[in-house]
Amino acid sequence: xxxxxxxxxxxxxxxxxxxxxxxxxxxxxxxxxxxxxxxxxxxxxxxxxxxxxxxxxxxxxxxxxxxxxxxxxxxxxxxxxxxxxxxxxxxxxxxxxxxxxxxxxxxxxxxxxxxxxxxxxxxxxxxxxxxxxxxxxxxxxxxxxxxxxxxxxxxxxxxxxxxxxxxxxxxxxxxxxxxxxxxxxxxxxxxxxxxxxxxxxxxxxxxxxxxxxxxxxxxxxxxxxxxxxxxxxxxxxxxxxxxxxxxxxxxxxxxxxxxxxxxxxxxxxxxxxxxxxxxxxxxxxxxxxxxxxxxxxxxxxxxxxxxxxxxxxxxxxxxxxxxxxxxxxxxxxxxxxxxxxxxxxxxxxxxxxxxxxxxxxxxxxxxxxxxxxxxxxxxxxxxxxxxxxxxxxxxxxxxxxxxxxxxxxxxxxxxxxxxxxxxxxxxxxxxxx
Length: 433
Prior knowledge:
The protein is α/β, with parallel strands linked by helices. It has helices spanning 3-78, 126-133, 148-162, 164-169, 219-228, 248-263, 290-299, 319-323, 368-376, 404-425; strands at 81-82, 88-95, 113-119, 138-143, 170-177, 234-237, 242-244, 271-275, 277-280, 302-304, 333-337, 346-350, 380-384, 389-392. The protein starts with a helix and ends in an 8-residue tail after the last helix.
């Protein structure tokens, strides 16, 4: 074979190889193209499916919201009672939990304790976090009036439709002034709902609980309603922006069963169980244990409640004594305290504890008056060792509403009258406040 023939064959083979390579590259390009097209189509289909799923969820939310809204409207149309003064309308059990937890059967006990609180529509969002930490019944009285009923019912329906933890444990009660009854309540049927909404976005007007266009906020009436309709043997009456320590509900039930066994052996005097209250600078900080709290207390991000506003109102809790109690795994009584003026602790008590005097409204003496009567009625104050309460945010002087001092003076005069009445109501005691 000559050299010329060999070269010719090589050229033909190389040309054939190049054609094969080019063909393979074209095939790879086409395959990649079809792969990209197929992925794009799949992504589009997935996006369409996700959108349809989201639309279905929103339709489900709306359907559930509409059903709940109609139930609420039906309730406020047919259920009305008046308070003792004849000034307020009460709609008890406006909406009840979706399960019967009155006896809290998973504990196997008949004893139960409710977190009883009060609010306006502005602060209903606090129930979401509260219902996740307090795993027992919550009884909340909601103050409303005039067109505010729309925001209130809208918020209640949203919470029940979109937040199962709230729906599971919370009973809502409604209170409004007789002279300012609800208006346009059916407007809630025209509202849209999406469970992905931030709860705070439902607040229509940011304002203090004490600032209601000339209306008085009836703390003590609201507290009494929440207490009365709690359907539990014990209550923790507390503000809605205060969180209990985790597991307090179950721990207290276990404790009170042990305590009642001791009580049956000879201790018969009435008692309330004080829970030390704190306030946190970082409202998103989660304090799971007493050790966590003490650590944050040392860093300055947590401090005793009312530290700057009214330290004398809380100092008799003896926070330092509580901090240094021996560590034990069970909830128990750490120590007893004799009541001193003007101590106003938060506590768990049985439902026979005296009611709050409903004449006290707006700012000042609304809680201390009730604690005063508890003391005069012969109750003992026992501080629990491992339990605590956390207020969201530091209380700062000067951040209160403009009419605070005027309301304080008015209620101070009422408190003097109240103490005179206590002497007549409990003539055989030597206790006073």
